[in-house]
Design goal:
The structure is a single chain. The protein is α+β, with helices and mostly antiparallel strands. A hairpin with a 3-residue loop joins strand 2 and strand 3. Helix 3 crosses helix 8 and helix 7 crosses helix 9. A 5-stranded mixed β-sheet has the order 1-2-3-4-5. It has one domain. Helices cover about 65% and strands about 10% of the residues.
Amino acid sequence: MPDLNVGGQAVIEGVMMRSPERVATAVRVPDGRILVKTENYVSMSKRHKLLNLPILRGAVTFVEMLVLGIKTLNFSADIAIKEQEKLDAKEKGDTVDSKERKSNSLMLGLTVAFALGLGIFIFFFVPLAISNLFHIDKNAVGFNLLAGGIRLTMFVLYIWGISFFGEFRRIFQYHGAEHKSIFTYEMGDDLLPERAARHPRFHPRCGTSFILIVALLAIFIYAVSDTIYALKTGHPPTLLTRFGLHFSLLPLVAGSSYELLKLSGKTRDHAITRIIIKPGLWLQKITTQEPSLDQLEVAIVALEASLGITESKLSSERVAVP
């Protein structure tokens, strides 16, 4: 099976798709239309040879996808807020207040910033703090195995917990639609919802698998870094020092994980690769859900827009968003 350089992300009532040349986000609004925002986008690793070196390109891609992911989530959330404002105003026979809209956008930005900070604290600092209570800080391997195990457990419990909320379930359905549409394209099948529905919703290059690889590879890299620190200073790092050291090494962990994920996509049919990617595919049983044909259509619209495909067999009305 070919592994084409196309990826994406589920957003609120839609999907973002990224090809080597464009990023497109498609969002379904209550009246049935699909709003599409398309931007030319070439990774910095493609524009600068130095940044295209192995591992370094992964770290660059990690940062780019983080920024892009937040940007597209904000876009979909902003669309949802505007559509809700229109519905509320229509019911009241009133007009939308621009000041209120700006206030909602500001709150959205603050919420994203707070969520990022909280995520770093919960999934980065808390596992270290809990592991520190066991007083095994002198054993770098044991400490990081414990911290890594706690981090993985917290992550799995977190995504399992939010999967019970209706809003997140819809996002997970769009996540499944993203995977199915990409599989449809990779197999050379017709880009139609009915055809996409036949393809799997579990993809080896998924961000869920990436996070899992990051968590596992971090155990090894952090154990090595803690050992080097102890040898250099004569004592193990304190909790805050360990947090700072591990956080500073995150680009290395992300870059190495990116290379492994890219390799798994290219060798997905190999027996050893199939074993290695199994845990990530199992986790996708939570983070992806079977999408509806309407959701698959949104994912295909985003995919076609990112690929620059203008002749489409889809019938839904598309509206370009500047």
